[in-house]
Amino acid sequence: MDNGRLASIPTGLINDNALASAVRNTYLSFLERRDALGLSNPGTFENINREVARDVLLTNFMFTGLRAEWNKPISNSPIFQLSHQLSMGAQGMSPYTFSALYGSSKVFLQGTMENDGSLVARSNYRWNDSLITKTNAQIQSSQSMLSIENDFSGRDFTASLKAMNPSILEGGVKGIFIASYLQSVTPSLALGIEAVWQRVAMNSSPEALLSYGARYKGLDWIASLQMQTEGPQGSAISSSYWRRLTDKVSVGTDLSLQFAPGLSGQGGLMGGSLQKEGSATAGAKYEFRASTFRAQVDSKGRLSCLLEKTILPAVRVTFAGEMDHLKQQAKVGVGVSVEAMSEDLMEQAEKGGVQAPAVPF
After folding, report:
1. What pTM did the predictor assign?
2. Looking at the chain, which terminus has fewer C-beta neighbours within 10 angstroms, N or C?
3. In Å, how far are 46, 64, 283 from 88, measured between CA atoms?
4. pLDDT, tens digit, 9 for 90 and up, residues 174-203
């Protein structure tokens, strides 16, 4: 396998050149040692704390008001589904949203349109087993956004390049550009770096900052640490810890500390006037036979919980609540989701006759 990587190099040139032969032997020895470590892909730098941020804590699950969702699966392979969502009294949610989703082993397409005409379109394309291109476009009355991202997943690393609202039409380059790299160095430890360059307008100066990250995976726990170097908005340090207590229970904590320049405009981590702000959040997730319960509390005095319960095979009810002790405020959300699957699709799902494709979400 390793020799095949160098098949394009003439063997005579390598054998007759002592320097080339030494480089080749060193490279092959490096590959052998790398294979012996048994390293796995660590994921992306953006999701370095995914177990805590995306699974345990309620950041991506909380809502308020009333919400009703009706899903209509049309096909299982490829995946094709239509969805209608109604909401009332919900913050940041449109009263009516229509969405369509299509997914195959190479393509993922999703379009969402709200009642005010706002449109969100997502598309992912898998070029091969390693490279995926992700595109996200938003068209709204106030502003529009376009982002293009490429993720390359190697055997033991992931490299990403992302551009948000890129443009060269005003005599220069503007937009937000993000490059990141996360590498497994041992079976348990992964180290990474992220670089951000942005220019909002051509009459403003460009800004750049670096972030460093580390992720350590134990037997039943995962810890991560991120440090953002000092930029125009200051610097920041964040850490997370996730642990699986039992097969049904997992817990997680997230700590963050931000250092911003003082009113005088001077300051830094090594001295000067600084404004410091920190936050801590702890949460737990309980998985039951037909329901999932999440709860969290943070240092700002907010207690939140969310219960998702399947009362019928096609009906799921969600209850969400948040109490802010410092502000003396409370929020409640209730949602119902119905999946109107046809009898043919239900029969296929029960028999397991149709295998769902590995969609590049």
Report:
1. 0.84
2. N
3. 33, 9, 28
4. 999 999 999 999 999 999 999 999 998 888
